[in-house]
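Researcher: Last one for today. Full complex below.
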Amino acid sequence: MLKNYIKIAWRNLIKNKVFTLANIIGLTSALAVALLLVMTALFELSYDQFHENKDSVYQVYLSNQTPRGLESGTSHPAPLAPALKTDVPGIKHAVRALSDDALVTYNDKEINLDAEYVDPEYFDLFTFPAIIGNAENPLSNKNSVAISEDGAQKVFGSIENVVGKSIALKLGKEEQLFTISAILENPPSNSSTDFDIVIPFKNHPEYASNIDRWDSQFHSVYVQLEEGVTPEQFEKNTQEFTTLHYQGSIENAKRDGAVANADGLYKQFHLLPIADRRFTSFASGAAEVKRTFPYMILGIAFVIIFIVCANFINMNIALSEKRLKEIGMRKTLGAVKRQLFFQFWMESLLVFTVSTILGLVLGNLLLDPFKSLFNTRATLEHVAQPNIIILFGLSIFCITLIAGGYPALLMSRLGTLHALKGKLDLGKNRLRNSLIVLQFAIAILLISGTLVLHGQIEFMRNKDLGYNKEQVISIPLNGKKDSYRVVELLREELKGNANVLNVSGADNNLGLGRDGSTMSSMMGFDYKGRGVVTNALTVDYDYAETLDLEVVAGRTFSREFAADSLSLVINETMAKQLGEEDPLSIRIPMDDGATTYSVIGVVKDFNFQDISKQVKPLTLFMNNGWDLYYAYVKIAPQNITSSFEAVEKAWGNIEPQAEFLGSFLDDNVDRTFRREKTMATIVTSGSILGILLSCIGLFAISMLVVAQRTKEIGVRKVIGASVSSVALLLTKDFLKLVGIAFVIATPMAWYFLNEWLQNYAFHVALSPLFFVGAGLLATLIAFITVGTRTVKAASANPVKSLRTE
Amino acid sequence: MLLQLNNIFKWVQSGGQRIFLLKDINLEVKEGEFISIMGPSGSGKSTLLNVIGMLDTFDEGEYHFLEDSVHNLKEKHRSNLYKEYIGFVFQSYHLLDDLTVQENLEMPLIYKKFKGSERKAMVADMLDRFNIVGKKDLFPAQLSGGQQQLVGIARALISNPKLILADEPTGNLNSKQGEEIMDLFKQLNDEGVTIIQVTHSEKNAEYGSRIINLLDGRMI
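Model: Here's the assembly. Have a good evening.
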């Protein structure tokens, strides 16, 4: 019996070659892509899930009521963690952690490693197991460090006999010797924390001077709660603690007119589960955990599967009309419903099995290009877990049951005589049409998403950021020499080069450099009885000139004025915040009145932070006591490549040991929206695939519709219709469906894209052209797809279609 | 003279051999004639009708229709020619199922780009002439076979063709309905319309002024 089913199924599939092929191609590519997308999404969702204590370990954040509204911060002062541990009940561990660089010297080799400065209990909270050495407590004393496999490879070239060796670390201005106590497994690719080396927190250069200061916040704090203690209890338990330790800033907040929160508090500690860290944004002040990105990817995978399944159902139902006689015949021969259902379902199962196998193969083949294209480190291992495989198998089975079973059910239910007569009443093809509408609505949604995403990326790339990003190279100062000395040496080395226009330095980068680090530095002070908060930037001479910042009032730092270390240059937003009519008259006392700074100039606002953020108040300092971390070199617009090489060569002469990580600022800016680009790539490929698959379906359906209407076409031609009028008649019905899809999809697309664009302080205007463009594109594609079929049908000789028997 | 066929041949190639569908057909039709084509199944009756109606091509020979040499015409001109001068009536009526009687009649006029008001007048005229005014809003499925064929003929006549080609117009009808349709043809012929019909029935063939017998694609 089964053999007979398979045989008949096989013959039927062979007979309808075009449809079988269309189905298999569609299903295969959809399954392959869905597999890859699901893999990516699961990988994203698996971030930080590997920590064994993930349910009891939290990151601490402080929400502040300020005159500007709610603001939250994850940076904390050094005394906080020990104080929490001793003063607040229910806390098992409280540890500090800080990500930074560390310059390692071993046998004359200098290497910059990603370092994590942590308290020793860190390893009780987080699961980073040691493979060699002291696994119990890798940071048992202040001079021991733990190194990852990769770190060990970088420094020693192997992981053998590394434990116990000494290395020198440059911490601040001094070098110190440390002993390797353990080698740790590399942090998994789905870990938010990535490091080469782990160093006891107390060695951090900032630690000693800030050990008792509650107003200097520079690291994260994680706590593990005791069993049975909830985050809510923690929040309650810390209320008094907070009022005590932050008394000064709470009073300032009250004075400046901040409004207390619902509990009547100005500052409150909250906890964030560590597995949520990657998905948390503090943009609106409160912590918002949004897993939009992975869910969007899952959504696209689902939508693509839906599109092919709709194709499959549509084609099968349409094809079944050809098989009505067969069904009738089988029924008269005594087939019962169940047998018929099984027979048709068998065909679907056959197609799905073949497609699934091909899809898995294709997915594997596409794995590497996919990973580089989508910038993900996901691997199939994240998918190849028993429960996920079972789930996958189950969902394939369900899809087969629905997509293959529905047409089978429809046909097996048909009355015998009905079937023999060859009439199939499918309720005016309502199901078919709604599926097509849905497919195209999805396609239009994805196309408009693609257009807006690309529009926004182009907008961000082309926006005038207020500084010269085309001609300026920024170089991370990652060597051993004093930073001011390096900038000075660069000036001298490049003096003879006519293509180098200016050299300067600052303690922060613009955009995201090749060193991959971001930093923000804020400070607050009282000005005329009001609290003022500003971003702070330490710069060297010629900063404004190098970056082409526009000076709107006063002057910038100059070598001709000896006292410029007590001068400030502020941006317009800062000037507005200070609220003086003549900004150049502003004098600001700092360090409890010990020093007074005076404003000497105002620069036009420039986007010194991500373009998604509004321009915040900014104050430029010039103080030799504060290190610079980046050098800026402005070159002439001609001979850019040779100038870049000259800069690189100069760097090599000055810091031969340190790697040159210089890059143009426009590349840095591009790097800041890598996430948007990845998203754009995913949505674009999703929409291309979606459109392609919808077209396969539409093509097949148009073929069948044309076949069904052959007689009508013949009659119309005989009574005088022209080819174009018949083609139009046939195409019109499909275009109508696309039109309905457009009406459904556009408001949804508008809503979602508008929501998304709100994340950006500067964004492209959501012009109707995006949607009209998407609609037109979908229409055009549908027109071409259907048109080829209909024109062919319309030009056929009516004699053939009218032959009655 | 309305049309003239000289030495028409039509064949299909099958296994290196020519199978003749029409063989050396010579036929002259004058305006106002009523011709019946007879012959057994597969003798080429319908093929001949289609060739005359310019729906089908032929492989050899000459076909003159009024002043035009059909064998030299391009596809497009040929279809313009038959659209203007020829009306078709089919055995299975071939009405458009989704359109009402009135809309079915209107369709050829739309394709010939008549104005809306003209179309209305002509359709009303035709409904009147065939006594089917009461049925104008019904769909073909709601009519009997005879009535459907009536509509079919009305549709063929609406744009005033010189020639009506009917392929077994009574084949799907009972004898009484068939008789009525044939009477109608007779009446139309008397009014001056040239008619060529294919039929199996001797009785129906008698309505014509001339009978052509076909056997294996050859006139006998």
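The radius of gyration of chain A is 34 Å. Chain A has 24 helices and 25 strands.
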